Protein backbone atom coordinates (compact mmCIF):
# COMPACT_ATOMS: atom_id res chain seq x y z
CA UNK A 1 0.00 0.00 0.00
CA UNK A 2 1.30 3.43 -0.93
CA UNK A 3 0.94 5.66 2.13
CA UNK A 4 1.46 9.03 0.41
CA UNK A 5 0.54 10.51 -2.94
CA UNK A 6 3.68 12.45 -3.80
CA UNK A 7 2.47 13.86 -7.11
CA UNK A 8 1.64 17.18 -5.46
CA UNK A 9 5.37 17.80 -5.09
CA UNK A 10 5.44 18.70 -8.82
CA UNK A 11 3.43 21.80 -7.91
CA UNK A 12 6.36 22.94 -5.78
CA UNK A 13 8.71 22.78 -8.78
CA UNK A 14 8.12 26.38 -10.08
CA UNK A 15 8.82 27.81 -6.62
CA UNK A 16 11.88 25.62 -6.31
CA UNK A 17 13.24 26.90 -9.65
CA UNK A 18 12.56 30.49 -8.60
CA UNK A 19 14.24 30.02 -5.22
CA UNK A 20 17.16 28.23 -6.89
CA UNK A 21 17.92 31.25 -9.05
CA UNK A 22 17.18 33.90 -6.44
CA UNK A 23 18.70 32.23 -3.38
CA UNK A 24 20.29 28.79 -3.71
CA UNK A 25 22.70 29.47 -6.61
CA UNK A 26 23.81 32.88 -5.21
CA UNK A 27 24.28 31.20 -1.82
CA UNK A 28 26.43 28.45 -3.38
CA UNK A 29 28.53 31.19 -5.00
CA UNK A 30 28.95 32.86 -1.60
CA UNK A 31 30.14 29.53 -0.15
CA UNK A 32 32.65 29.26 -3.02
CA UNK A 33 33.86 32.82 -2.39
CA UNK A 34 34.23 32.19 1.35
CA UNK A 35 37.09 29.72 0.87
CA UNK A 36 39.06 31.88 -1.56
CA UNK A 37 41.04 35.10 -1.62
CA UNK A 38 39.59 36.95 -4.61
CA UNK A 39 41.47 39.81 -6.25
CA UNK A 40 39.49 39.84 -9.49
CA UNK A 41 37.36 37.23 -11.30
CA UNK A 42 40.41 35.52 -12.82
CA UNK A 43 42.82 35.90 -9.89
CA UNK A 44 41.72 33.92 -6.87
CA UNK A 45 43.48 31.61 -4.42
CA UNK A 46 42.08 28.81 -2.28
CA UNK A 47 42.56 29.63 1.43
CA UNK A 48 40.39 26.93 3.05
CA UNK A 49 38.76 28.01 6.31
CA UNK A 50 41.14 30.90 6.95
CA UNK A 51 38.50 33.62 6.49
CA UNK A 52 36.19 31.87 8.95
CA UNK A 53 38.93 31.73 11.61
CA UNK A 54 39.72 35.41 11.06
CA UNK A 55 36.10 36.55 11.03
CA UNK A 56 35.21 34.56 14.14
CA UNK A 57 38.09 36.26 15.99
CA UNK A 58 37.33 39.72 14.56
CA UNK A 59 36.30 42.21 17.29
CA UNK A 60 34.35 44.18 14.65
CA UNK A 61 32.05 41.18 14.14
CA UNK A 62 31.68 40.64 17.90
CA UNK A 63 30.81 44.31 18.47
CA UNK A 64 28.29 44.54 15.63
CA UNK A 65 26.76 41.20 16.59
CA UNK A 66 26.27 42.39 20.17
CA UNK A 67 24.81 45.71 18.96
CA UNK A 68 22.54 43.82 16.57
CA UNK A 69 21.17 41.50 19.28
CA UNK A 70 20.61 44.43 21.68
CA UNK A 71 18.88 46.36 18.89
CA UNK A 72 16.60 43.45 17.88
CA UNK A 73 15.80 42.74 21.54
CA UNK A 74 14.86 46.40 22.16
CA UNK A 75 12.77 46.52 18.97
CA UNK A 76 10.82 43.41 20.01
CA UNK A 77 10.50 44.52 23.65
CA UNK A 78 8.93 47.82 22.57
CA UNK A 79 7.00 46.99 19.39
CA UNK A 80 5.26 43.78 20.48
CA UNK A 81 3.60 45.09 23.69
CA UNK A 82 2.90 48.45 22.01
CA UNK A 83 1.38 46.71 18.97
CA UNK A 84 -0.91 44.67 21.26
CA UNK A 85 -2.02 47.81 23.15
CA UNK A 86 -2.71 49.64 19.86
CA UNK A 87 -4.68 46.67 18.49
CA UNK A 88 -6.74 46.43 21.69
CA UNK A 89 -7.56 50.15 21.53
CA UNK A 90 -8.68 50.06 17.90
CA UNK A 91 -12.41 50.33 17.19
CA UNK A 92 -14.27 47.10 16.43
CA UNK A 93 -17.01 48.56 14.24
CA UNK A 94 -18.08 51.74 12.50
CA UNK A 95 -16.20 54.34 10.46
CA UNK A 96 -13.29 54.23 12.87
CA UNK A 97 -12.24 50.80 11.57
CA UNK A 98 -11.22 51.78 8.00
CA UNK A 99 -9.87 55.09 9.27
CA UNK A 100 -7.57 53.48 11.84
CA UNK A 101 -6.52 50.71 9.42
CA UNK A 102 -5.46 53.28 6.79
CA UNK A 103 -3.74 55.42 9.42
CA UNK A 104 -1.77 52.43 10.70
CA UNK A 105 -0.85 51.29 7.19
CA UNK A 106 0.68 54.63 6.22
CA UNK A 107 4.11 54.18 7.88
CA UNK A 108 4.39 50.73 6.26
CA UNK A 109 4.06 52.31 2.81
CA UNK A 110 7.03 54.65 3.29
CA UNK A 111 10.27 53.31 1.73
CA UNK A 112 13.17 52.66 4.10
CA UNK A 113 15.47 55.38 2.77
CA UNK A 114 12.65 57.94 3.00
CA UNK A 115 12.06 56.91 6.64
CA UNK A 116 15.75 57.55 7.35
CA UNK A 117 15.58 60.96 5.67
CA UNK A 118 12.37 61.90 7.51
CA UNK A 119 13.96 61.12 10.88
CA UNK A 120 17.20 62.82 9.89
CA UNK A 121 15.19 66.02 9.53
CA UNK A 122 12.80 65.45 12.47
CA UNK A 123 15.77 64.77 14.77
CA UNK A 124 17.63 68.00 13.94
CA UNK A 125 17.63 70.48 16.81
CA UNK A 126 17.28 73.56 14.55
CA UNK A 127 14.52 72.63 12.07
CA UNK A 128 13.30 69.21 13.31
CA UNK A 129 10.27 68.96 15.57
CA UNK A 130 11.58 66.04 17.69
CA UNK A 131 15.08 67.48 18.17
CA UNK A 132 13.80 70.99 18.78
CA UNK A 133 11.25 69.86 21.42
CA UNK A 134 13.83 67.76 23.32
CA UNK A 135 16.33 70.63 23.32
CA UNK A 136 13.62 73.10 24.37
CA UNK A 137 12.90 70.83 27.34
CA UNK A 138 16.52 71.32 28.40
CA UNK A 139 17.78 67.93 27.21
CA UNK A 140 21.09 68.13 25.38
CA UNK A 141 19.94 66.05 22.42
CA UNK A 142 22.07 65.55 19.31
CA UNK A 143 21.82 62.23 17.45
CA UNK A 144 24.81 63.06 15.24
CA UNK A 145 27.32 63.39 18.07
CA UNK A 146 25.89 61.51 21.06
CA UNK A 147 25.80 57.66 20.80
CA UNK A 148 22.92 57.39 23.30
CA UNK A 149 20.81 59.89 21.34
CA UNK A 150 21.67 58.12 18.08
CA UNK A 151 20.48 54.79 19.54
CA UNK A 152 17.27 56.30 20.89
CA UNK A 153 16.54 57.94 17.52
CA UNK A 154 17.20 54.76 15.55
CA UNK A 155 14.91 52.83 17.92
CA UNK A 156 12.15 55.46 17.88
CA UNK A 157 12.37 55.49 14.07
CA UNK A 158 11.94 51.71 13.92
CA UNK A 159 9.05 51.83 16.39
CA UNK A 160 7.38 54.55 14.28
CA UNK A 161 7.86 52.53 11.11
CA UNK A 162 7.00 48.99 12.19
CA UNK A 163 4.74 48.97 15.27
CA UNK A 164 1.83 49.25 12.81
CA UNK A 165 2.67 45.85 11.39
CA UNK A 166 2.45 44.19 14.82
CA UNK A 167 -0.74 46.14 15.58
CA UNK A 168 -2.40 45.12 12.30
CA UNK A 169 -1.45 41.46 12.79
CA UNK A 170 -2.79 41.51 16.36
CA UNK A 171 -5.94 43.31 15.22
CA UNK A 172 -6.65 40.58 12.66
CA UNK A 173 -6.00 37.98 15.38
CA UNK A 174 -8.40 39.72 17.77
CA UNK A 175 -11.12 39.99 15.09
CA UNK A 176 -10.96 36.25 14.49
CA UNK A 177 -11.93 35.40 18.09
CA UNK A 178 -15.57 34.21 18.06
CA UNK A 179 -18.00 36.33 20.09
CA UNK A 180 -19.09 33.35 22.21
CA UNK A 181 -15.83 33.58 24.17
CA UNK A 182 -16.63 37.17 25.16
CA UNK A 183 -20.24 36.20 25.98
CA UNK A 184 -18.98 33.42 28.27
CA UNK A 185 -16.58 35.89 29.90
CA UNK A 186 -19.44 38.36 30.49
CA UNK A 187 -21.55 35.62 32.11
CA UNK A 188 -18.61 34.80 34.40
CA UNK A 189 -18.14 38.52 35.08
CA UNK A 190 -14.54 38.28 34.02
CA UNK A 191 -12.43 41.43 34.39
CA UNK A 192 -10.77 43.14 31.38
CA UNK A 193 -7.44 41.68 32.50
CA UNK A 194 -8.91 38.16 32.75
CA UNK A 195 -10.42 38.47 29.25
CA UNK A 196 -7.04 39.57 27.91
CA UNK A 197 -5.04 36.96 29.83
CA UNK A 198 -7.27 33.91 29.26
CA UNK A 199 -9.04 34.63 25.96
CA UNK A 200 -7.26 37.21 23.82
CA UNK A 201 -3.62 36.44 24.58
CA UNK A 202 -3.88 32.64 24.02
CA UNK A 203 -5.77 33.26 20.77
CA UNK A 204 -3.11 35.76 19.68
CA UNK A 205 -0.25 33.33 20.30
CA UNK A 206 0.27 32.25 16.68
CA UNK A 207 -0.16 35.73 15.26
CA UNK A 208 2.31 37.05 17.82
CA UNK A 209 4.83 34.37 16.89
CA UNK A 210 4.59 35.48 13.25
CA UNK A 211 4.93 39.13 14.31
CA UNK A 212 7.97 38.37 16.48
CA UNK A 213 9.56 36.31 13.71
CA UNK A 214 9.00 39.01 11.06
CA UNK A 215 10.19 41.80 13.29
CA UNK A 216 13.22 39.82 14.45
CA UNK A 217 14.31 38.97 10.91
CA UNK A 218 13.72 42.50 9.65
CA UNK A 219 15.44 44.21 12.56
CA UNK A 220 18.31 41.73 12.45
CA UNK A 221 19.11 42.65 8.86
CA UNK A 222 18.30 46.36 9.10
CA UNK A 223 20.51 48.48 6.88
CA UNK A 224 18.98 51.43 5.06
CA UNK A 225 17.31 53.36 7.88
CA UNK A 226 20.29 53.65 10.28
CA UNK A 227 22.64 54.08 7.31
CA UNK A 228 20.67 57.10 6.07
CA UNK A 229 20.03 58.49 9.57
CA UNK A 230 23.41 58.14 11.29
CA UNK A 231 25.70 56.46 8.73
CA UNK A 232 26.52 53.95 11.48
CA UNK A 233 27.84 56.65 13.79
CA UNK A 234 28.77 58.45 15.87
CA UNK A 235 31.91 56.33 15.60
CA UNK A 236 30.53 52.84 15.22
CA UNK A 237 27.72 53.25 17.78
CA UNK A 238 24.92 52.34 15.36
CA UNK A 239 26.89 50.19 12.91
CA UNK A 240 24.90 46.98 12.71
CA UNK A 241 25.82 43.67 11.10
CA UNK A 242 24.61 44.43 7.58
CA UNK A 243 26.53 47.71 7.47
CA UNK A 244 29.74 46.06 8.69
CA UNK A 245 29.21 43.44 5.99
CA UNK A 246 28.59 46.02 3.26
CA UNK A 247 31.69 47.99 4.28
CA UNK A 248 33.72 44.78 4.05
CA UNK A 249 32.26 43.58 0.73
CA UNK A 250 31.86 46.84 -1.19
CA UNK A 251 34.01 49.35 0.70
CA UNK A 252 37.11 47.18 1.00
CA UNK A 253 36.16 44.73 -1.81
CA UNK A 254 37.21 41.93 0.56
CA UNK A 255 34.90 39.35 -1.01
CA UNK A 256 36.27 36.22 0.68
CA UNK A 257 36.01 37.61 4.22
CA UNK A 258 32.62 39.18 3.44
CA UNK A 259 31.35 35.84 2.11
CA UNK A 260 32.44 34.03 5.30
CA UNK A 261 30.78 36.82 7.34
CA UNK A 262 27.56 36.46 5.28
CA UNK A 263 27.37 32.73 5.91
CA UNK A 264 27.79 33.16 9.68
CA UNK A 265 25.11 35.90 9.55
CA UNK A 266 22.84 33.55 7.56
CA UNK A 267 23.35 30.70 10.04
CA UNK A 268 22.29 32.93 12.95
CA UNK A 269 19.09 33.98 11.14
CA UNK A 270 18.43 30.39 10.06
CA UNK A 271 18.70 29.09 13.64
CA UNK A 272 16.43 31.75 15.12
CA UNK A 273 13.87 31.36 12.32
CA UNK A 274 13.88 27.59 12.74
CA UNK A 275 13.26 27.97 16.49
CA UNK A 276 10.26 30.26 15.80
CA UNK A 277 8.96 27.98 13.05
CA UNK A 278 9.24 24.91 15.30
CA UNK A 279 7.49 26.74 18.15
CA UNK A 280 4.69 27.74 15.78
CA UNK A 281 4.13 24.31 14.23
CA UNK A 282 4.42 22.72 17.70
CA UNK A 283 1.55 24.98 18.86
CA UNK A 284 -0.51 24.09 15.79
CA UNK A 285 -0.01 20.37 16.43
CA UNK A 286 -1.05 20.73 20.07
CA UNK A 287 -4.21 22.56 19.01
CA UNK B 1 29.74 28.34 -14.34
CA UNK B 2 33.03 30.22 -14.08
CA UNK B 3 31.33 33.18 -12.39
CA UNK B 4 30.41 30.90 -9.45
CA UNK B 5 34.14 30.56 -8.65
CA UNK B 6 33.98 26.81 -7.99
CA UNK B 7 36.68 24.97 -6.04
CA UNK B 8 37.04 21.21 -5.68
CA UNK B 9 36.28 21.08 -1.90
CA UNK B 10 33.10 23.20 -2.25
CA UNK B 11 31.98 21.16 -5.29
CA UNK B 12 32.45 17.96 -3.25
CA UNK B 13 30.58 19.54 -0.33
CA UNK B 14 27.54 20.46 -2.44
CA UNK B 15 27.63 17.12 -4.26
CA UNK B 16 27.57 15.46 -0.82
CA UNK B 17 24.56 17.51 0.28
CA UNK B 18 22.74 16.77 -3.01
CA UNK B 19 23.47 13.04 -2.68
CA UNK B 20 22.26 13.13 0.92
CA UNK B 21 18.95 14.69 -0.17
CA UNK B 22 18.53 12.16 -3.01
CA UNK B 23 19.36 9.28 -0.64
CA UNK B 24 16.84 10.58 1.95
CA UNK B 25 14.15 10.85 -0.76
CA UNK B 26 14.81 7.30 -1.96
CA UNK B 27 14.83 6.02 1.64
CA UNK B 28 11.52 7.75 2.38
CA UNK B 29 9.97 6.36 -0.83
CA UNK B 30 11.20 2.80 -0.25
CA UNK B 31 10.52 2.70 3.47
CA UNK B 32 8.38 5.64 4.65
CA UNK B 33 9.32 6.94 8.10
CA UNK B 34 6.94 8.24 10.73
CA UNK B 35 7.30 11.19 13.09
CA UNK B 36 8.58 10.10 16.48
CA UNK B 37 9.99 11.40 19.73
CA UNK B 38 13.60 10.63 20.66
CA UNK B 39 16.03 12.45 22.97
CA UNK B 40 15.34 15.77 21.19
CA UNK B 41 12.64 17.79 22.97
CA UNK B 42 10.24 17.66 19.99
CA UNK B 43 8.58 15.19 17.66
CA UNK B 44 10.65 14.87 14.50
CA UNK B 45 10.54 13.23 11.09
CA UNK B 46 13.67 11.96 9.32
CA UNK B 47 13.87 15.20 7.34
CA UNK B 48 13.62 17.27 10.55
CA UNK B 49 16.44 15.26 12.10
CA UNK B 50 18.57 15.71 8.96
CA UNK B 51 18.01 19.47 9.07
CA UNK B 52 18.77 19.64 12.81
CA UNK B 53 21.88 17.51 12.26
CA UNK B 54 23.13 19.69 9.38
CA UNK B 55 22.49 22.93 11.28
CA UNK B 56 24.20 21.53 14.40
CA UNK B 57 27.13 20.42 12.21
CA UNK B 58 27.49 23.92 10.73
CA UNK B 59 27.59 25.41 14.23
CA UNK B 60 29.92 22.61 15.40
CA UNK B 61 32.43 23.46 12.65
CA UNK B 62 32.24 27.16 13.50
CA UNK B 63 32.80 26.43 17.21
CA UNK B 64 35.86 24.31 16.44
CA UNK B 65 37.25 27.02 14.14
CA UNK B 66 36.57 29.76 16.69
CA UNK B 67 37.80 28.06 19.86
CA UNK B 68 40.48 25.54 18.86
CA UNK B 69 43.44 25.00 16.54
CA UNK B 70 42.23 21.51 15.60
CA UNK B 71 42.32 20.56 11.92
CA UNK B 72 38.95 20.70 10.18
CA UNK B 73 38.64 16.92 9.72
CA UNK B 74 38.41 16.55 13.53
CA UNK B 75 35.36 18.85 13.51
CA UNK B 76 33.90 16.92 10.57
CA UNK B 77 34.43 13.59 12.37
CA UNK B 78 32.77 14.89 15.59
CA UNK B 79 29.86 16.39 13.62
CA UNK B 80 29.37 13.23 11.54
CA UNK B 81 29.15 11.21 14.78
CA UNK B 82 26.69 13.76 16.19
CA UNK B 83 24.67 13.61 12.99
CA UNK B 84 24.48 9.80 13.15
CA UNK B 85 23.35 9.98 16.81
CA UNK B 86 20.65 12.55 15.98
CA UNK B 87 19.39 10.52 13.00
CA UNK B 88 19.26 7.28 15.02
CA UNK B 89 18.08 8.39 18.48
CA UNK B 90 17.04 12.04 18.05
TrEMBL record, chain A:
Main location: membrane
GO CC annotation terms, alphabetical: plasma membrane
Alphabetically ordered keywords of this record: Membrane, Transmembrane, Transmembrane helix, Transport
One Pfam family, short name: BPD_transp_1
PROSITE patterns for this protein: ABC_TM1
Bilayer topology: Multi-pass membrane protein
Matching InterPro entries: MetI-like (IPR000515), MetI-like_sf (IPR035906), Sugar_ABC_transporter (IPR052730)
Keyword Transport applies: yes
GO terms for biological process, alphabetical: transmembrane transport
Subcellular localization: Cell membrane
Keyword Hydrolase annotated: no
CDD domains registered for this protein in UniProt: TM_PBP2
Protein name: ABC transporter permease
Domain ABC transmembrane type-1: 65-276
Bilayer-crossing regions: 69-89, 101-122, 150-171, 258-277
Family: Belongs to the binding-protein-dependent transport system permease family.
UniProtKB/TrEMBL annotation, chain B:
Ranges annotated as spanning the membrane: 6-27, 48-66, 72-89
Pfam families membership: DUF2160
Keywords of this entry: Membrane, Transmembrane, Transmembrane helix
InterPro entries per the UniProt record, alphabetical: DUF2160_TM
Protein name, as recorded: Small integral membrane protein
Organism: Salinicola socius
Upper lineage: Bacteria, Pseudomonadati, Pseudomonadota, Gammaproteobacteria, Oceanospirillales
